[in-house]
Design a protein that fits this description.
- By secondary structure, the protein is mainly β.
- Helix content is 0%, strand content 35%.
- It is globular, with a radius of gyration of 13 Å.
Length: 114
């Protein structure tokens, strides 16, 4: 695990990379996952290879393997399309799915959605 500049609550299991983020109790970050500039609510799981940037991940949400949630503002050419991505409580983002900046997901996101 690599964690810096972050607030981590008790009960978190971190095997990936966390930077400039807040992790609430019981969050799990698997090996190879990256969480930057984000807030992850209690009980959420970020699976291996997933990337979460500039996002709020709701309680008990699941981010599938190799899924991408949000992006850095400098990686978005049209700044009007950039914003924080929000994953609602209990929502599952399927493997390799993509949630764009500024999107708010209240329902499960299908595998491979781009």
């Amino acid at each position: 695990a690599f964690v810096q500049n972050s607030l981590v609550s008790e009960g978190c299991e971190i095997y990936g990379t966390v930077d400039f983020s807040v992790l609430h109790a019981g969050v799990s970050i698997e090996k190879g996952a990256v969480v930057c500039d984000s807030i992850v609510m209690p009980g959420a799981a970020i699976h291996s290879g997933a990337v979460v940037q500039y996002a709020i991940v709701g309680e008990n949400a699941v981010i599938g393997e190799k899924a991408v949630v949000g992006s850095r503002p400098e990686d978005t050419p049209d700044k009007d399309r950039w914003g924080v991505a929000v994953i609602g409580p209990g929502v599952t983002v399927g493997p390799s799915a993509r949630v764009q900046p500024k999107e708010m997901m209240e329902d499960d996101v299908e595998e491979g959605r781009a």
